[in-house]
Amino acid sequence: MNNKVVKNLVILGGGTAGWITAALMCKVLGKSISITLVESDKIGTVGVGEATIPPIINFNQALGLDEKEFLRETKGTIKLGIQFENWLKQGDSYMHAFGTIGKNFPFCDFHHFWVRHRQNGGTESLWDYSLNYQAAKNNKFSPLSQIKGTNLPGISYAYHFDAGLYARFLRKYAESKSVTRVEGTVDEVKLNPESGYVEKLVLEGGDEVQGDLFVDCTGMAAMLIHKALGVGYDDWSHWLPCDRAQAVPSALVKPIVPYTRSIAHEAGWQWRIPLQHRTGNGLVYSSRHWTDEQAREVLMSNLDAEPLADPKVIRFRTGRRREAWRKNVVAIGLSSGFLEPLESTSIHMIQSAATRLIKCFPHCGIRAEEVAEYNRQSQVEIERIRDFIILHYKANQRRDSEFWRQCEEMAVPDSLQQKMELFRKSGKAFRDFDDLFTEVAWQQVLIGQGVMPEDHHVIADGLSDSQLTDLMGSLQTLIQGSVKQLPSHDQFLASIQDAVK
Ligand SMILES: Cc1cc2nc3c(=O)[nH]c(=O)nc-3n(C[C@H](O)[C@H](O)[C@H](O)COP(=O)(O)OP(=O)(O)OC[C@H]3O[C@@H](n4cnc5c(N)ncnc54)[C@H](O)[C@@H]3O)c2cc1C
User: Fold this and answer.
1) Closest ligand 1 atom to Cα of 42
2) Is 49's C-beta closer than 6 angstroms to any atom of ligand 1?
3) Are 114 and 447 in contact (CB under 8 A)?
4) Atom of ligand 1 at shortest range from CA of 184
5) What is the pTM of this model?
6) Which of 140, 328, 336, 425 would disulfide-bridge 135, Cβ 3.0–4.6 Å?
7) H or E segment at 286?
8) Distance between terminal CA atoms of the chain?
9) What residues are labeled active site?
10) How far is residue 342's CA from residue 284's CA, in Å, rounded to a whole number?
11) Angle formed at CA 138 by CA 135 and CA 141, multiple of 5 degrees
12) How far is the CA of 86 from the centre of ligand 1 (A)?
């Protein structure tokens, strides 16, 4: 496609996507290429995106970040899962808790034993066997790799943090290495008349920034990938009906819980993200069912402390950019697509895209094969995550509003329909190749959303009734004992501050 060696990488946009990409690029490729980031204070960032999922731990380790410093600087807290309230029906609640549940058996997941135990009359919930869930609901946390004295896995966690402070933290990191920041608004993109490649960005005032490879991190504006190169967008709003959000911070509430809350309302859902200094709140809703004013009222009347600002409205369209990489432009972040924030997957997808770009990084020019592989992987990733999010809407038993009835009636992608049917009939759930979500994550949301297995795996019949009762009892005892020994989440957060004294 192009034989020019990539020496100058230009990232346009300084939101979470821009600074994550800059940080990883300079850490891994900083000695080989020059990296410039252009951002516009005038335009600003979307300013939301405060909940993450466990792979962020690996990402931070790859950057060599100190966890305590990271949490202090971003006012971060611990996230052990997401509690879904009123999603199945009003008054119901379940958690997508990170990590595993119960005990891993070869060839057969733990929940099959739980299903059989229920068929025998057991009344315990699946989450009685989740260390993460029990720690979350008891407001406990400490890093724990294994349950003491056993080979059972310990706690799996992620973070909540302040979006603005996170971008600032990464900016400091990237600038302290080799990234050059240019402040300014780009108002023209110059293309090579023959190849159609982007050659330079022209800023207001006339300054120019040249590059060999450009990363479009301009958020929903998609200035390079869409406006300059014309790459289209697959709209998924027929599966993911929400298209607006309003976000507002509120005063701190103690104790600071170590999980995100997602509370379903009549035409959308509300998030609560606890940080060290405040709570982040937002309402995600369908503009076909609620006006902005109605949504505002729902959000403001469901805060658990005084608001610290006025809510701001964010419009979005769920879907994906048809090609994340075209010619010499790679779209990362909101410019490459957006799935709504229900499972906190966007920041992860930025980290994964930046990692993928490094793995596919062009050497002696940009090759069609590398571009195609990058695009293939990006598509597989986002489609699998899409199905997982649709599941929450589809498998609801709420009949109290048009919105939920329509969600329940909608046709979903075949890939999801098959998963739901297989699980309902047999209890079997498989993680597809390249699926971000584990079998245990699928099992929790399927069961939490009322897709109950009618059968269990034959291996679960290998234990006698009394052996099964003993197994379930001893697992519960181990988990409860382990949770008792953990410090509270507030104590853990205090220990981070102590580390600087
Ligand atoms: C309601 C909502 C809630 C969310 N919650 C979560 C969550 O809990 N967890 C999660 O993982 N993700 C979440 N996300 C997604 C997350 O916010 C984004 O993925 C993340 O912030 C990345 O945004 P971005 O950097 O792509 O875009 P933006 O933050 O919009 O940044 C765009 C950048 O481009 C610059 N720019 C644009 N045009 C120009 C120009 N012409 N010249 C110069 N610079 C320009 C802007 O100044 C800015 O710096 C949420 C998103 C929404 C909408």
Assistant:
1) 47
2) yes
3) no
4) 43
5) 0.97
6) 140
7) none
8) 56
9) 79
10) 9
11) 45
12) 28
